[in-house]
Every structure is written in structure tokens, then in C-alpha cells.
Amino acid sequence: MRPRLFSSKLTPARRRLYRSVLAFFVLVFLAMIWPVVTLFSHARPLILGMPFFLFYLAVLLVGSFLVLLSLYLWEDRTGASSDPEEDSP
Questions:
Q1: Pick from 5, 14, 28, 35: which is nearest to 78 by CA?
Q2: Is residue 42 part of a domain?
Q3: Which residue segment(s) compose the domain that 50 sits in?
Q4: What does the DSSP assignment read for 55-84?
Q5: Is 29 a domain residue?
Q6: How far apart are alpha carbons 61 and 43 in whole angstroms?
Q7: What's the total number of domains in the chain?
Q8: Average of pLDDT values for 15-40?
Q9: What backbone torsions phi and psi does residue 8 show, to the nearest 5 degrees?
Q10: Beta-carbon neighbour count of residue 52 at 10 Å?
Q11: Under 8 Å between Cβ of 35 and 45
């Protein structure tokens, strides 16, 4: 079975959405590794009582959750969660 992102039965809008989500998570991954993370690894300033680095990681975590939640709700609303290759005989 081919991954959904590479399925030939996807509409261009769905393919664009899945690619955007994939690109977002690649950027989150890159934002959490060296050398990018060294730009934010400071104890000061304190934001909401947290060191800046902890706040930076919390923002990435909450952003990831919101992207996954919105993708889930979109697939649930449009019925896009079913595998497009299961419909073929």
C-alpha cells in the first residue's frame, strides 16, 4: 500500500494540504536541532515565568498539536480519512 501523500487518487487540494502539514513538521524538527536551537537556548528573558528556551519549546509543541488537531477535524468533516485506494475494485 502506498502512503497517502503519494497516492494518485488524491485531489490537488488534499495533496497540497498533506504536503503543507509535512513541511510544517519538517520545519518543527529542524527548529529543534542544532544549530537553530542554539539561537533560543537562553535562560533570560522569562516569558510567562518560563525561561525563553522552555517557552520556545512549548510554542513548538502547542503549534504541532494545533496543526494535527486541525488536520484531524478537516479529515473528519470532509470524510477524507478513508483510504482512497480502498474504493477501487
A1: 14
A2: yes
A3: 14-78
A4: HHHHHHHHHHHHHHHHHHHHHHHHTTTS-T
A5: yes
A6: 19
A7: 1
A8: 90
A9: -75, -10
A10: 15
A11: no
3-class secondary structure per residue, 13-37: HHHHHHHHHHHHHHHHHHHCCCCHH
Task: Please write the tens of the pLDDT for every residue from 35-61.
Answer: 888 887 877 888 888 888 888 899 999
Residue 7 resides in a domain: no
The three three-digit cell numbers of residue 13, written as one number: 487540494
| Identity at 35, one-letter amino acid code | P
CB-based contacts of 57-64 (< 8 A; 24+ apart in sequence): 57/32, 60/28, 60/31, 60/32, 63/28, 64/24, 64/25, 64/28
Cα 20 to Cα 15, 43, 45, 49, distances in angstroms: 9, 32, 32, 33
Overall residue count recorded for the chain in this entry: 89
